[in-house]
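Here's what a typical entry looks like (Topless-related protein 3 isoform X1):
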Amino acid sequence: MKHFEAIVQAGEWEEVEKYLSGFTKVDDNRYSMKIFFEIRKQKYLEALDRQDKAKGVEILVNDLKVFSTFNEELFKEITQLLTLSNFRENEQLSKYGDTKTARTIMLIELKKLIEANPLFRDKLVFPALKSSRLRTLINQSLNWQHQLCKNPRPNPDIKTLFTDHTCIPPNCHLAPTPVSIPVAAVVKQAGYTPLGAHGPFPSTAATAANAGALASWMANASAPSSVQAAVVTTSSVPVPQNQVSSVLKHPRTPPTAPGLVDYQSADHELLIKRIWPSQSVEDVTYPTPRQQASWSLDDLPRTVALTLHQGSTVMSMDFHPSHSTLLLVGSTNGEITLWELILKERMVSKPFKIWDMAACSLPFQASIVKDAPISVSRVAWSPDGNFVGAAFTKHLVHLYGYAGSRDLRQHLEIDAHVGSVNDLAFANPNKTLCVVTCGDDKLIKVWDLSGRKLYHFEGHEAPVYSICPHKKENIQQFIFSTAIDGKIKAWLYDNMGSRVDYDAPGHWCTTMLYSADGSRFFSCGTSKEGDSFLVEWNESEGAIKRTYTGFGKKSVGVGVVQFDTTQNNFLAAGEDSQIKFWDMENTNVLTSTDAEGGLEPLPRLKFNKDGSILAVSTADNGFKILANNSGLRIIRSVDTPPAYEAVRMPIESSVIKLLVSGNSAVPNVSPVNCKVERSSPVRPSPIMNGVDSMGRSMEKPTKMDEVIDKLKPWQLAEIVDPGQCRMVSLPDSTDTSSKKLWKWTRNEQNPTGKATASVVPHHWQPNSGLLMTNDITGVNLEEAVPCIALSKNDSYVMSATGGKVSLFNMMTFKVMTTFMPPLPASTFLAFHPQDNNIIAIGMEDSTIHIYNVRVDEVKSKLKGHQKRITGLAFSTNLNILVSSGADAQLCVWSIDTWEKRKSVTIQIPAGKAPSGDTRVQFHSDQIRILVVHETQLAIYDASKMERIRQWIPQDALSAPISNAAYSCNSQLVFGTFVDGNIGVFDADSLKLRCRVAASSYLSQSVLNGSQSVYPLVVAAHPLEPNQLAVGLTNGSIKVMEPIESEGKWGSTPPADNGMLNSRTTSSSTTSNHTPDQLQR
């Protein structure tokens, strides 16, 4: 800050902005905008004060005009200052003094803005340095240089730091220096940017917390002139001659323990004293070992709970990230199987087949004809549990979308590598879900979910055996890879080559894994000679921290030991037909089990997320499930019905408790996607009984609930009386041009201050009394289509009522800007999900305008519909915009080029006119899309625009549909009907779960009135999956949720098996086309 204060006081404005640009940009947030505005305004006023009008105009046009987009009136007022002989004639500037005083006052304001700006957090104070830090760095450098000496001497004479040190060759043979710091990595000479340079500058606290972070390792390994740090102390430890020689012969293998050395020659001391007056020398130290968490052997899953037969040798297994008993298995016959352990049942089985041979490469087509059958090499769940990936031993990767229960549908086939695809993993670079693959062609590739190759990493000299994508706090995401020659490399998502080049112990096949909390890094592998190595790495040094013992010698070519980690405490590896367990803090084997016999010689194994269940492969083409006491209770719960409630209640109560822990939210009446942002302040809770009570219990129903629901006789839930649900009414609103903001305040009736259907919210307005009112000059309100959209961070609201589009600040209700001519009228609005400055505007004349607020310009005009636009939805995963119109047509547009990719007409039931408003909303997986028309609800796969499900009004819900929306977790669909009914559907199957009759939320006088009142729009709460709001045709709004004793809208409907209780579900005509059927 001192430097910043000095250049502000000196009026060095270009230097001020250049300095700030290292931390923030004008449009990062409102604090940054205000900072730059104050600086440029001061620069402008000083030019006017000097009577330099030409300079003032230049500043106005080049620097201040950017702010006109957000406050046009203020910009006009600033421009008018040019017409005054002295700008102090303006009333607001009448107290402006001299330049020095004005800069001081401005500096006080800037300090406040900088301190409040989250982008400057932890960056206002230069990190503290230890007094001997320079001495330490010099010793590290000299240690390294001395390592490279061809003739190292015991007491090297260091006289300068301006050239690299080398010992002068002696006339006679001398014993090597007592140094045990080997070269830990090959230093790449290419000038790649170190990984640490790609992240933000860490604070002192963050630096201490990340002492073991990969940033240091990578930066040290890859910098052109820096090297691996050595541990320095004031004493040296002699090392036997043979140890030093062996180390220097194999300089690439990281050491198992760092050595100790310092240089204390007289000349060296003199040099140090000249450049650093401190008399003390501090050691470079490792972080202190963590305290061992309390645990017992009972925490380990060692009891055999199940033995299941796969039918072919198991090659890979992976548990669902939140459903602790849902196991994905891949086998040598190419089959992918989904097992539900509670039911002891195969939920889905997908035999290997090529989905589209014509799209595959010619080498693959040739290899299929002559080579052996294709085996699975790896299966994996995506982190959100919505996708399944499978890699095969020939070229291919298959991606399936998982929609719950037995719905595993084909999503994407990729001809990924020449030869075998050896590993597959999911990653989220730039917050976009991607698939990372590696193969025999020595390459690593990153694909998006549409099959587009994003990155292509080459540099390995042998087939790549495994990959390990990861992310550290304050560091970009990266990928570790290992090849069958034992080389370990690390890559950033930038196509600039590997940042690390190490040798794995054993110099052969190795896999790498992080502990569950991402703080510890392990690898396990086997050498060609049959020796196995399980080690923990010290990330800050790129060295081996500890090597675990207990492996036996294996025959050459037997295979590679597999391992896994769990609970941040334990490691497990399969060897000698048994499972061996280690405590992470102890190198000796903790315990082992043979799982009652029958395991493979080198069994494959996988823990579920909470470590209560362990799957391990057997020699008879199957696998066993081992469990601890917690895991046994979950697996065996189906055999003991009385225990259901005891197991169920802690899970449900934790869900309810955490779902109300977020910030208060306003029901959103705009048809925008209500999925929870990854950056939301609401974070997943600790895992309970294998169920992530916030993160994924919201995403899919718990398997325990599914089992309970299956055993209960199913009946459609019908709510016909007001006492059967919770509901609150907001006052009627007949002013269609004004927008209202409702907030739930914290009080005795609502101590949490969260949105609830038990307490009436407060109509909130800013102190200024401003209203969010649209320009309706010359608008026929009876024909106008009101439309509204919230920005991704809820900072802005955009709306129109037949006239110009207005952009409001949600905190002040001020109009930031208005745009678009009143005709043709806007009929639908949507913010770009990644850039609030880009807006898609659907028009009455059937066009879509892509408008850039910042430059006040329509960038593209999209034409493809025949009637007005009635819906817009963005997918960041597919990089597309889907539009719908009153012509019952869906169009898909590329976000990159705004070109039309595809156009389909929704399938209207026989006898119905192909017209009427059509609305669209993406599922939280950003792949499936809900299509709403008065004649139907439908689910489409947006990557192909093929219909997966369809529901047609029938039985008790036979009236036309007025609107529908996904719940925030995309597990429910709320549908409204023109007869006043509301239907709650299961989002996966579109089967009806619950019917809410109009009599439950409308008064008798309204029901008996001459005018029909029904829900015109429905919105889902952004955090609570069972809370919804409906806007009625009479202007009133109702907020609803189930009664507390129920907690949800009905139960999951069963599959159509002819065993429904007393009545059939209102989904008998549900179209259930799987992708397989659609292709046929």
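The two ends are 67 Å apart (CA to CA).

More examples are in the samples folder.
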